[in-house]
């Protein structure tokens, strides 16, 4: 594997990335008050974005395409492969990885809860930047899930942003 894969994601204090129906109002209504999260700098270094199907569908509701200039790969067993000319749809992680290697992808942004879990279980992830939002939403889609074995992380830094947002960077130990 010649690429470097990173996650840059926001989570409620109780560990959710979205409400059960996928809503992220709890994030968008507060997000701007956090100040500079470093997202633009992070994105500037990314050449390839990997999205789960549900995150891809959420992005389509934004009304603008936030990945101009990036290669975008979507993992899905259900989407038609010609769903959108801006993305390539992959049925399996193995197929995705083959394409990433063939295309010479260097820095990958993996986004979506299931995608994060898929990448972790497959040993494909190098870095995590988690921004914790000071809100409890009670139930929702979890960022993390079951693992076959523990995954040890190195904590690199933690920053306090505005309005009580807390951002931490971790490297996955190999
Ligand atoms: N808080 C944040 O910063 C943040 C960031 C990103 C997303 N979100 C939110 O999170 C929600 C989506 O997260 P999610 O965890 O439900 O879904 P997701 O990871 O975006 O997408 C899950 C889907 O991806 C496909 N997939 C995942 N792993 C796969 C594999 N190994 N092989 C083949 N296909 C695979 C499957 O699609 P098929 O069902 O088509 O097979 C699966 O249903 C959205 O509401 C989004 O807005 C929040």
How large is the share of residues in beta strands?
A: 25-35%
User: How far apart are the first and last residues' alpha carbons, in Å?
Assistant: 13 Å
Query: Which molecules are bound in this entry?
Result: NADP nicotinamide-adenine-dinucleotide phosphate
Count of individual beta strands: 10
CATH class: Alpha Beta
- Count of structural domains: 1
According to CATH, the homologous superfamily is Dihydrofolate Reductase, subunit A
Gyration radius, rounded: 16 Å
Shape: globular
So, CATH architecture?
Answer: 3-Layer(aba) Sandwich
Helix content: 10-25%
Which strands sit side by side, in order, in the main sheet?
Answer: 5-4-3-6-1-7-10-9
Number of helices: 5
Order of helices and strands: EEHHEHEEHEHEEEE
Explain how this protein is built.
The structure is a single chain. The protein is α/β, with parallel strands linked by helices. It has a single domain, classed as Dihydrofolate Reductase, subunit A, CATH 3.40.430. The chain contains five helices and ten strands, in the order ββααβαββαβαββββ. The strands form two sheets. The chain has an eight-stranded mixed β-sheet with strand order 5-4-3-6-1-7-10-9. Strands 2-8 form a two-stranded antiparallel sheet. The protein is globular. NADP nicotinamide-adenine-dinucleotide phosphate binds next to strand 1, strand 2, helix 3 and helix 5.
């Amino acid at each position: 594997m010649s690429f470097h894969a990173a996650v840059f994601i926001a989570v409620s204090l109780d560990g959710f990335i979205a409400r059960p129906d996928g809503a992220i109002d709890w994030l968008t209504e507060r997000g701007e008050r956090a100040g500079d999260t470093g997202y633009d700098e992070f994105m500037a270094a990314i050449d390839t974005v990997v999205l789960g199907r549900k995150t891809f569908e959420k992005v389509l509701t934004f009304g603008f395409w936030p990945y101009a200039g990036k290669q975008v790969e979507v993992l899905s067993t259900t989407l038609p492969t010609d769903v959108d000319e801006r993305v390539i749809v992959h049925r399996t992680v193995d197929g995705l990885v083959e394409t990433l290697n063939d295309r010479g992808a260097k820095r990958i942004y993996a986004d979506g809860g299931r995608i994060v879990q898929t990448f972790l279980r497959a040993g494909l992830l190098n870095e995590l930047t988690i921004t914790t939002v000071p809100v409890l939403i009670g139930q929702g889609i979890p960022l993390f899930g079951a693992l076959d074995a523990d995954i040890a992380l190195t904590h690199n830094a933690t920053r306090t942003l505005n309005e009580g947002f807390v951002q931490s960077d971790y490297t996955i130990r190999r």
